[in-house]
UniProtKB/TrEMBL annotation:
InterPro entries: MoaE_sf (IPR036563), Mopterin_biosynth_MoaE (IPR003448). This is Molybdenum cofactor biosynthesis protein MoaE. It comes from the Bacteria.
Amino acid sequence: MAIIDLIQGPINVEALNKQLVDPKYGGIVTFVGTVRQWTDGIQTESINYTAYEEMALKQMHELAQTVEDTGSRVIMVHRLGHLELTDAAVYVGVASEHRSTAFGQCQMLMDQIKYKVPIWKEEIDTDKVRWGGIQDDKH
């Protein structure tokens, strides 16, 4: 069963990685998205993440189910609240029989989180505050 969560504190990447290890899986792929300082010449100081939590969790579970129906294991954790530069904002992990499957599924899940799950970011930049989230198409 997938591990899906929205949390207020730091993401424990090491602990999540350990939960993907299983003798039946030959490929484990993880993605950790962190708060970066520069985006297209705009300097970010920090980010506040908010979500429509009930709907976000529902959609994340639905996404995970499509992957787990193939026999893979899924972990998706997104942090909410105030994050500083280099803080981990999102973790997506997939364990599968084969690496190519794990790579593809991990990328698909991360892309779908960005485009479909109601999580928004308030970027505190050096010049002004910007809002992003579902409509933000930067990778």
